[in-house]
């Protein structure tokens, strides 16, 4: 989508933020179905999602293990591929390794249509079946599609409502930001997060519903309902800060200087310093050359537990869903070996809520380092990880008493590329006894400052962005 200046929302950001805040207070709407019953009915549809041998993927018009590399690719050369990645680092206990990684060069649209009804801002979400979803159907953006999808490389139907994001003049663009996804599993992946506000009538569709932000916030307190792509797109809306101050729409260096523990200039200097400190030399290599991994009939997996970067496998699935643009297909998925944890410590400093975040270097990031939560960890690794090798603050988060836990919900990651990938999103509020002095990779940043940074590409990783939205849902 190419936005013209006359499409951009140039109204004062405080006006939009106030409308977003008003929508967040409305928890019922005549425009919405009984969302729990509606979603349950969508999940009862006759979908198929069956794990299959990898060789069943390789059929005419489907996938193939490319001669000479062993890379798992689609015959069209589009969608995505499974390739090998070789990594050398100047930090950490393991300085060199190789692993499979998902390579998707298409930039996907994660687009949400917004519209006012009865003076309240609503958002059009889709009950979308994805083969890797827990419960199969979750609420996704209005449009969640790669360019391969919406240009119909799959020879299926055109994605509903995609014209609102590909044709100029269909609405006012209020959010339009390129952001990364999981840097441990994707190579240089990025998506276009777009929110377009319209005033015209929008055609109805049985698999879509209008929800207020208040209704969406309630659903964020339930596991596996609001999918990852909806969470990331919604997270860019101009929320007012937790202390009532409007922060979005300003440049990062204009926000938070007087009230935060650190000025925005200091934060940007810290972030630049961490990016300068860490080196990750990465190169794509043939999948057949990845050491420490093997392929059997059903999966590509690490030869033994503890292989660095080896907390997942590559599997194949056969899918049938009449609600999708193509009714039947087969594809590979990345299947994590258990539950992930994304934990965030927050604390009041000078009366303002700060989050303890970490500069995290991952091999799939475009610029090596992005800001992540306090802790990101695969819990299946916990029993075999000695206490002195565990991430800083992991045990603090896991042992936090119930009274200081502000958010604790398991959410799914992207079901179109991952099979049953779940992350426990945990927010713990620390008291004044928690130290302000933290290791060099960590920084205390106000929620307002994080919201401002989020409006720019490649500052906050996907887990930090989800946690920020969940924190705003409280």
Secondary structure: elements and pairs:
Layout: H1 13-24, H2 35-43, E1 48-52, E2 63-65, E3 72-74, E4 81-89, E5 96-103, E6 108-117, E7 120-129, E8 137-140, E9 143-145, H3 147-150, H4 163-166, E10 172-180, E11 186-187, E12 190-197, E13 208-212, H5 213-220, H6 228-234, H7 264-277, E14 280-285, E15 293-295, E16 299-302, E17 312-320, E18 328-336, E19 340-349, E20 352-361, E21 369-372, E22 375-378, H8 394-398, E23 405-412, E24 422-430, E25 442-446, H9 447-454, H10 462-472
Parallel strand pairs: 5-11, 6-12, 19-24
Antiparallel strand pairs: 1-17, 2-3, 3-4, 4-5, 4-14, 6-7, 6-9, 7-8, 7-13, 10-12, 15-16, 16-17, 17-18, 19-20, 19-22, 20-21, 20-25, 23-24
Protein name: NDP-hexose 2,3-dehydratase
Domain dTDP-4-dehydro-6-deoxy-alpha-D-glucopyranose 2,3-dehydratase: 34-235, 265-471
Pfam family, one: Hexose_dehydrat
């Amino acid at each position: 989508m190419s936005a013209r200046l006359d499409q951009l929302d140039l109204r004062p950001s405080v006006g939009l933020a106030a409308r977003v805040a008003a929508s967040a207070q409305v928890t019922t709407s005549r425009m919405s179905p009984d969302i729990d019953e509606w979603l349950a009915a969508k999940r009862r549809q006759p979908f198929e999602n069956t794990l299959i041998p990898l060789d069943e993927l390789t059929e005419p018009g489907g996938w193939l293990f490319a001669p000479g590399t062993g890379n798992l690719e689609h015959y069209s050369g589009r969608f995505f591929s499974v390739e090998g990645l070789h990594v050398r680092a100047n930090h950490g206990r393991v300085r060199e390794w190789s692993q499979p990684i998902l390579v998707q060069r298409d930039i996907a649209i994660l687009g949400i249509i917004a519209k006012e009804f009865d003076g309240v801002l609503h958002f059009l979400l889709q009950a979308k079946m994805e083969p890797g979803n827990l419960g199969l159907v979750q609420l996704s953006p209005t449009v969640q599609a790669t360019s391969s999808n919406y240009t119909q490389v799959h020879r299926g139907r055109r994605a509903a409502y995609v014209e609102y994001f590909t044709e100029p003049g269909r609405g006012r663009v209020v959010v339009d930001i390129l952001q990364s996804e999981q840097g441990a599993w994707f190579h240089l992946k990025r998506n276009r997060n777009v929110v377009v506000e319209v005033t015209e009538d929008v055609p109805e569709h049985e698999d879509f519903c209008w929800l207020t932000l208040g209704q969406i916030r309630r659903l964020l307190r339930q596991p596996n309902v609001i999918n990852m792509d909806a969470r990331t797109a919604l997270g860019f809306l101009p929320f007012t800060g937790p202390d009532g101050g409007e922060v979005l729409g300003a440049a990062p260096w204009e926000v938070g200087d007087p009230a935060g523990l650190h000025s925005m200039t200091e934060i940007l200097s810290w972030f630049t310093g961490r990016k300068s400190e860490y080196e990750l030399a990465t190169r794509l290599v043939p999948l057949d050359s990845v050491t420490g991994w093997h392929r059997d009939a059903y999966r590509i997996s690490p030869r033994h537990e503890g292989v660095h970067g080896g907390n997942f496998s590559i599997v194949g699935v056969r899918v049938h869903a009449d609600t999708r643009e193509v009714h039947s297909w087969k594809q590979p998925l990345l299947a994590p070996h258990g539950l992930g944890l994304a934990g965030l410590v927050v604390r009041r400093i000078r009366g303002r809520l700060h989050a303890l975040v970490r500069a995290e270097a991952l091999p799939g990031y475009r610029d090596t380092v992005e800001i992540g939560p306090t802790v990101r960890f695969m819990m299946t690794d916990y029993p075999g990880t000695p206490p002195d090798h565990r991430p800083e603050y992991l045990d603090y988060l896991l042992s936090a008493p119930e009274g200081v836990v502000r958010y604790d919900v398991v959410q799914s990651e992207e079901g179109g590329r991952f099979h049953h990938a779940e992350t426990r999103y945990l927010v713990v509020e620390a008291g004044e006894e928690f130290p302000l002095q933290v290791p060099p990779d960590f920084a205390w940043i106000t929620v307002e400052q994080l919201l401002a940074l989020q409006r720019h590409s490649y500052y906050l990783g996907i887990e930090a962005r989800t946690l920020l939205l969940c924190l705003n849902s409280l």
